[in-house]
Amino acid sequence: MPLYMMLCTDKPGALELRKATREAHLAYVAETGCVVQAGPLLDDAGEMAGSLIVLDLPDRDAATHWGANDPYAKAGLFEAVRVQEWKKVIG
């Protein structure tokens, strides 16, 4: 199965929204079972400002659908989301 990378940038000033929906996001990640790797992007101050998520799903549509149902996305956290196929070479 191919891997898909989601690169998500938070809206400016949305740190509190991220913190408020983080538990629901983590529960969704655990429940769906398709996340290979994930973690927050950090701004210059070291605060969470986005997400990098690698998904093991059959196609880009499935990855986009997964992302749209993420509680972060449903809460309106993201300013931009990029979904692209990713090829693991190292690690």
Care to describe what's here?
Residues 3-87 form the YCII-related domain. InterPro entries: Dimeric_a/b-barrel, Sec-metab_biosynth-assoc, YCII. Pfam families: YCII. With 91 residues, the protein is α+β, with helices and mostly antiparallel strands. The protein has one domain: Dimeric alpha+beta barrel (Alpha-Beta Plaits, 2-Layer Sandwich), CATH 3.30.70. The chain contains 3 helices and 4 strands; from the N terminus they run βαββααβ. The chain has helices at 15-32, 60-69, 71-74, and strands at 3-10, 35-42, 48-56, 78-86. A hairpin with a 5-residue loop joins strand 2 and strand 3 (48-56).
| Poorly predicted runs | none
CATH homologous superfamily classification: Dimeric alpha+beta barrel
CATH topology: Alpha-Beta Plaits
How many individual helices? Answer: 3
**Multimeric status of the protein:** single chain
Give the helix level as a range of percent: 25-40%
In one word, what is the shape? globular
Number of strands: 4
Number of domains: 1
Structural class: alpha+beta
Based on CA atoms alone, the radius of gyration comes out at 13 Å
- In whole angstroms, how far apart are the ends? 17 Å
From N to C, what is the helix and strand string?
Answer: EHEEHHE
The side-by-side strand order for the widest beta sheet comes to 2-3-1-4
State the CATH architecture.
2-Layer Sandwich
Strand content: 35-45%
CATH class category = Alpha Beta
On the 0-100 scale, what is the average pLDDT?
96
Largest sheet: 4 strands, antiparallel
